[in-house]
Design goal:
490 residues; 24 strands; alpha+beta; OB fold (Dihydrolipoamide Acetyltransferase, E2P); six-stranded mixed β-sheet
Length: 490
């Protein structure tokens, strides 16, 4: 039985989609990291860069957004021949005010990606006031169905408008679509009116992204239950719960995610190692530019031979990799280093396994194929932060690398710094250092420390630091004292 478990009673909002007892999707939205995707702003063009065929737009959210030429409504609506070769300045100019919508959130030093072709999503259609485009859901059962809806769209829309018919629209009456279209037109007219009264760049329309994502997950619930721990959210989603699906309010003492065993699943999504059957495992390393997934057999061995082991492990890894990509919301370039396969037939089996699993993903992905080194390349559209990016931050100790200098390396660095004071007027150096650094520096029975003191011409005294990483700091250089100023001297 399917379950959609929604935790919406606190500032951090989350939901989990569970199918056949296995978590299929986890979505987390924190107040400080809410996606701007779909929000509409009044923007002012700051720079027009012909060489990039793009403009930078101040839309009131700190870092300027990036707006490409083919995302300008003036470009889309243009009927000029060979318009792609017409200079950017013909479509946009510096200081121009225009409505823009966020297509992709800012990431790192990159600003948000914007579009001037506004989309207003409804239950049945996506309305584009200046989109000049007609499309029908790919899930339409026949080319005749698509042709019928396209003909209908050409009759009800203006030349400038664009319409996308969602899957939900395919079984609706035309009157329902026309009524929704009129509502979307009225909404856009209100947005234009609001924007015209604004003097500075800023937000014009904000989407309830969490609610929209929850509705998307709800569409995947078949003959199951929706569990919500917030009465207000329960009332809001109640109107959209289909027949055959029960809606329950959870008011237990234990947090809803803990009660339904979702918290341990979230913790697993933050770990590098993902265990497969029979001791095989994957290691997932997520970076800013790409994600690398490395497959290892571990203790798994097939019943027949090594090749049997390899192909079975790789197929299991392909299925689980697709699931982890979906759960962790990984995006951008993704490389999967499977165990070496000898021929194209084995690779095809693995390819089919991951393709079959990616069908369940609501985010667009593209499998590029295997490289000469046997690494599978794929890309997945990024619209928001991954689970790890949402829940974690860079380590203050290692700077986000996952590594720190070893105690031995830091001890050698201290030795080099002390050598700079050779034959100085100082009689003694007082140094704060972690215990392991002191041990490596001094050696057994202080043999290295005594040798260095003799060579440098001054005494070395230590105080023990409780720093979280291998560390030293020269606290004082000066005349020697008879009093031992160390917490742990040598």
């Amino acid at each position: 039985m399917d379950q959609l478990i929604i935790n919406a009673n606190l500032r951090e909002k989350r939901f989990a989609l569970v199918k056949n007892g296995e978590v299929e999707k986890i979505y987390i939205e924190q107040p400080g990291q809410q996606s701007l995707v779909g929000n509409i702003y009044l923007g002012i063009v700051e720079k027009v860069i012909p060489g990039m065929n793009a403009a930078f737009v101040n839309f009131g959210e700190g870092t300027s957004g990036f707006l490409q030429k083919d995302k300008l409504s003036s470009y889309v609506l243009s009927d000029k021949e060979n318009k792609a070769n017409i200079p950017l300045g013909s479509y946009v100019h510096q200081g121009e005010k225009l409505l823009v919508q966020v297509e992709k959130d800012a990431a790192g030093t990159k600003g948000a990606r914007l579009t001037g072709v506004i989309e207003l999503p409804g239950e049945n259609i996506v309305y584009m006031p200046r989109g000049k485009y007609i499309a029908v859901s790919k899930k339409a059962d026949s080319s005749e169905t698509r042709a019928r809806w396209k003909e209908f769209a050409s009759q009800v829309k203006t030349d400038e408008e664009g319409l996308i018919f969602r899957t939900e629209s395919l079984n609706q009456q035309e009157e329902v679509i026309i009524r929704e279209l009129d509502q979307q037109r009225s909404l856009y007219a209100e947005l234009e009116k609001s924007a015209s009264g604004m003097k500075k760049p800023g937000l014009v329309f904000s989407r309830d992204y969490f609610f929209e994502q929850a509705l998307s997950a709800l569409a995947a619930v078949k003959n199951g239950t929706v569990i919500v721990d917030c009465l207000e959210f329960k009332k809001k989603i109640d109107l959209h719960v289909p027949e055959g699906v029960e809606l329950e309010f959870y008011n237990g003492k234990e947090p809803v995610f803990s009660f339904y065993k979702i918290e341990p699943e979230i913790e697993r999504l933050l770990k590098r190692v993902v265990w497969l059957d029979k001791g095989a495992y994957m290691v997932i390393d997520q970076g800013e530019a790409l994600t690398m997934i490395d497959v290892n057999t571990g203790k798994f061995s097939g019943k027949t031979d090594l090749r049997d082991t390899v192909i079975k492990t790789n197929i299991k890894a392909a299925v689980e990799a697709a699931r982890q990509i979906r759960l962790r919301d990984l995006a951008g370039i993704i490389l999967i280093d499977f165990i070496d396969m000898k021929n194209s037939g084995e690779r095809d089996k693995v390819l089919k396994a991951i393709q079959k699993e990616l069908i369940h993903d609501d985010r667009r992905s593209r499998i590029v194929g295997f490289t000469e080194l046997g690494i599978l390349q794929l890309t997945r559209k990024k619209t928001k932060q991954s689970v790890a990016e949402t829940l974690t931050e860079k380590c203050g100790t290692c700077g986000g690398t996952g590594q720190v200098l070893s105690s031995e390396t830091v001890a050698y660095k201290l030795e080099r710094e002390l050598w700079e004071y050779k034959n100085s007027d100082y009689e003694e150096m007082l140094i704060s250092a972690t215990d392991e650094v002191i041990r490596h520096f001094s050696g057994e029975a202080d043999i290295h420390k005594l040798r260095l003191e003799k060579a440098l011409g001054y005494k070395i005294k230590f105080s023990v630091s409780d720093a979280a990483r291998p560390f030293f700091e020269i606290l004082q250089a000066g005349a020697s004292t008879e009093q031992d100023r160390t917490k742990a001297g040598h």
